[in-house]
Fold this sequence. Notes:
Largest interface: A-B, 34 and 28 residues
Oligomer: heterodimer
Shape of chain B: globular
Number of strands of chain A: 11
Largest sheet of chain A: 7 strands, mixed
Structural class of chain A: mainly beta
Strand content of chain A: over 45%
Helix content of chain A: under 10%
Shape of chain A: globular
Distance between the termini of chain B: 37 Å
Largest sheet of chain B: 6 strands, mixed
Number of strands of chain B: 11
Structural class of chain B: mainly beta
Radius of gyration of chain A: 14 Å
Amino acid sequence: NAGVTQTPKFHILKIGQSMTLQCTQDMNHNYMYWYRQDPGMGLKLIYYSVGAGITDKGEVPNGYNVSRSTTEDFPLRLELAAPSQTSVYFCASSYSRTGILAKNIQYFGAGTRLSVL
Amino acid sequence: TQLLEQSPQFLSIQEGENLTVYCNSSSVFSSLQWYRQEPGEGPVLLVTVVTGGEVKKLKRLTFQFGDARKDSSLHITAAQPGDTGLYLCAGDRGTSYGKLTFGQGTILTVHP
């Protein structure tokens, strides 16, 4: 069972270049998320999706774009990369559960370590 | 705005010592989760606490959810080098599409 798979694992990008971080999950989860993790800052939500064709901004969306054409895939696009986007990026997925006693368990990929130089 | 304050940020202890990590907020959460992350990997869920005052045990790890569901703690008894890692708390308000609010994390190093 692969779970959440992210590619690439590492990448070096030049300032101003663009690239797409890939994320795919095989658990048929409807919710998917993109986070960035900077030292001492925990995880910050970039974008999330509640199903195919539906995406919304998280806490730090500037400089990024996403799409969700299928349940399985949720790519993250960096346009005009800047040094401030040097970070570790994590994709996660979860079941949809709402209600007072909701328990939203997120499953994470292994991350993409991106350097913008 | 950091809604979940986690402390301490760094913890370096000797094998066999006990430790406690705290996660505090002014907001009420429907549940609170603790994740552990090892270098080069993504976070992995350890436990979810849902009910105010709830205590859950996972071998040498004890998790507690505050009565008002605003805070939580993780206590490790007789720490082992294998406990080394980044510990993250995350709160779920149960309202916004499963979005979690993460604390900034506690880096634990247990020396043999």
